[in-house]
Amino acid sequence: MTLQVGVIGTGMIGRDHIRRLTNVVSGVEIVGVTDIDQARAAAAAPAGAEVFATPSALISSEKVEAVIICSWGPAHEEQLLACIASGKPVFCEKPLVTSESAALRVMEAEVACGRRLIQVGFMRRFDSDYRRLKAVIDGGKLGAPLMFHSVHRNASVPEGLYTSEMPLNDTLVHDADISRWLLSDEVIGVEVRAPRRSSRGGALRDPVFVLLHMASGALVDVEISVNIAYGYDIRGEVSCEAGVAALPNRPATVISDSNGIRQAIPEDWRERFIDAYDQEFREWIVAASNGTASGPSTWDGYAATLVADAALRAVVSGGFEPVNMIAKPNLYGRPAAMAAE
Ligand code: NAD
Ligand code: ISE
User: Are 35 and 18 in contact (CB under 8 A)?
Assistant: First the structure.
């Protein structure tokens, strides 16, 4: 059986996902695409796919069984609510939405529907290095995790697309989610400190340090640099009671020449997480073909949104900003269920 999907948003990641769904993973066919830039949608449409005039036309089309949202974050709420109203499984790129109130509206609609329909694009959970790191921590031989150092560096970001707070309201959600998942914990508060700005970052608050206070008492420090020029560099190290576990250096050919000995660094997220994106879609296709969703949920998207909101408040207050979550609806499993999700 082949899952017939429609893709909303045919920008950078929309096109990359269209490539993988067309050429890499199986069990899926793209039958429709749409974008507010219709020419871009037409150029990205695989052979035989219809170019829909609007997201709502795509979502309500009978030929579309499941939806992939790759539009900008502020557009996600309306598109997610339309998918839930149609009862169609949906993969939504991060961020789930861009405010706490929007996250609550989406969660309320999904809970009322009675089954999970949404998987959020937190692809790090599907990366084999992160999965092995989590297995070591969950194995317990190193004792309880005490600190997690998360480094999130981008070579550059597209000009003009983002506000000055992009590192906090767009990029940080990945670190918030992976911290909750790796440590099987929740964020209860956030602090933010900024060093001198990078001259390469323009108006962006870049770089920035974020401190996540976890419910267990563990602390997570996050370095976000979004214009660091040399490449896309993701690092992570967890200090536990009786040892330390870290992501490996990425395997890459070692080049020795008159400039020295070196290994290439990925250019961007497409290259670094290529296998993780493939795997997140393999798992999504299985769940969506059964009319539901697995993996990172609306609850996880809500949690990451609250962390981003608290970080933005912490910039203004200069102090600790609490993260207060509602009680977890049964639909999203028991409170400490993240290890299995
Ligand atoms: P982009 O600007 O390259 O593409 C977004 C596309 O969506 C554009 O073509 C735009 O015209 C279209 N669009 C925006 N609003 C729309 C609407 N209301 N209806 C229809 N089309 C609409 O941006 P991008 O880098 O591809 O990012 C898209 C989303 O994916 C963002 O939410 C971003 O945070 C996320 N993203 C995730 C990852 C990841 O690693 N998981 C990486 C990059 C981007
Ligand atoms: C981008 O939207 C992503 O999600 C990437 O994974 C992240 O590293 C980058 O900072 C974001 O802009």
Answer: no
